[in-house]
Amino acid sequence: MISESEFKKRRDSLANKMPNSSVGVIFSAEPATRSNDTHHPYRQDSNFYYLTGFKEENSALVFLKTKNELKTVLFVQKKDKTLELWSGERLGAKEAKSRFLVDEIYLSDDFKKKFKEFIKDKKSIFCELGSKKREAKKVLKLTKDFKTKHDIRPLIQKMRLIKSAAEIGLIRESIEITTKAHHRAMSIDKKGKFEYQLQAEIEHEFKINAAYSDAYTSIVACGNSANTLHYIKNDKPLVDGELILIDAGCEHNYYASDITRTIPVNGKFTKAQRELYSLVLETQLKIISMIKPHVKRTHLQECAERLLTKGMIELGILKGSYKKAIKLLKHKKYYPHGIGHWIGIDVHDPAPYKDDKHQEIALQKGMVLTIEPGIYIDKDDKSVPEAYRGIGIRIEDDILVTKDGYENLSSGIAKSIEEIEAISSKF
Fold first, then answer.
1. Digit-coded pLDDT (tens) for 351-403
2. I need a surface site. Which of 236, 304, 382, 395 has the fewest CB within 10 A?
3. 171 and 41 in one domain?
4. Which candidate in 247, 346, 349, 397 is catalytic?
5. Is 396 one of the annotated active-site residues of the chain?
6. Any catalytic annotation for residue 348?
7. Are residues 188 and 61 both part of a single domain?
8. Structural domains of the chain, count
């Protein structure tokens, strides 16, 4: 778990990025209505959680900075036995004072009054510009006369780019649970079942291992369904002889995993499936091997595109010369997405990809990203040899950048043809 001292260190680091005579404020997430008077399970705003570790709604964090003083203030809900009867226990101001390493604690009901006091004689405000949160909009009205306003979120998101040892530990825990889920999907008999039944097996494994939420809606796509990149219907039968693309990861203690494996329904790859799968896997292994500090993601992307293009020409999926295929971006038809993304509290962590000068940020020790090449061939694409039609393959792992190279945090999840077939032989 992340210690209160680490949360305080983050707050101090953020405050140090603000100029003197400034105020910073960020709010908790608002409850999301599911329908009428029912709500989705509450999930804290990622930036707010990153700075506080506090999971309650109706909260706010304020930074006050002058030339001689830095003060952090947390606003929390008041204790209310009636409301707690319906919605659960609240921490309250008294317990908050003993838990959080902040300078002052106030009740959320007093926010407007106290904030008006805070902004007196201040020159700049750091807030959630453009946010849809009601309280964030109110802050903009209260500070309408401020000439200098900044969005506080990019400052936080930049900090989230480098993961601490504690954060990496939580990502490891998330991946350990996801490992069990993917291996469960590989090992059970899938013939005669539907995509949603396999999804249920995966998410059952998440929940019995204390990952109460998936990190994103699971993709369980059999056959041609895998050629819809964001396929989440998961309502079709698992057909003997076809492949299933499973993109599923859990969220555990607010940290995500994001893993994709592509497995055969009956446990055995056909010749054509082996050929395509081997191309994607060899590409992924090569790209992962290139990861180290100072390497840029665009370089990894370009290398992946070249490897996939060369392989698709050899298999007869792409026609003509390699040089012409690359120049005309012919591979984009079958590999339209990026090589990967940052991952952390959000499955697609919003940390920046470019610096303040709009230059690409190179990999650094402590970054965590996915590597996920793929090939997607629609069943009706008659320009491709028939054996490859209707096959979609993606292989995705979560990679930590280390001092001298990388660590594949999800290396324990089977992905070679031999490993997958061995696990599948259990049914």
1. 999 999 999 999 999 999 999 999 999 999 999 999 999 999 999 999 999 99
2. 382
3. no
4. 247
5. yes
6. yes
7. no
8. 2
346 is catalytic: no
The single residue of 135, 203, 372, 397 carrying the catalytic annotation is 372
For residue 195, is pLDDT > 90?
yes
User: Do 44 and 65 belong to one domain?
Assistant: yes
Same domain, 172 and 153: no
Catalytic residue list contains 394? yes
* Residue 258 falls in the annotated catalytic set: yes
Which domain range does residue 25 map to? 4-159
Judgement on whether residues 29 and 109 belong to the same structural domain of the protein: yes
Q: Rounded mean pLDDT of 151-160?
A: 97
- Three-state helix/strand/coil letters over the chain: CCCHHHHHHHHHHHHHCCCCCEEEEEECCCCCEEECCEECCCCCCHHHHHHHCCCCCCCEEEEEECCCCEEEEEEECCCCHHHHHHHCCCCHHHHHHHHCCCCEEEEHHHHHHHHHHHCCCCCEEEECCCCCCHHHHHHHHHCCCCCEEEECHHHHHHHCCCCCHHHHHHHHHHHHHHHHHHHHHHHCCCCCCEHHHHHHHHHHHHHHCCCCEECCCCEEEEHHHHHCCCCCCCCCECCCCCEEEEEECEEECCEECCEEEEEECCCCCCHHHHHHHHHHHHHHHHHHHCCCCCCCHHHHHHHHHHHHHHHHHHCCCCCCCHHHHHHCCHHHHCCCCCCCCECCCCCCCCCCCECCCCCECCCCCCCEEEECCEEEECCCCCCCCHHHCCEEEECEEEEEECCCCEEECCCCCCCCHHHHHHHHCCC
Of 104, 130, 159, at which residue does a domain stop?
159
Same domain, 222 and 330: yes
Give the end of a domain, one of 115, 136, 159.
159
Q: Which of 66-70, 72-76, 413-417 has the lowest mean pLDDT?
A: 66-70
Tell me, yes or no, if 404 is annotated catalytic: no
Would you call 230 a catalytic residue per the annotation? Answer: yes
Give the mean pLDDT of 295-318: 98
Does residue 37 carry a catalytic annotation?
Answer: yes
Q: Which of 56, 394, 398, 406 is catalytic?
A: 394
**Catalytic member of 322, 348, 381, 407:** 348
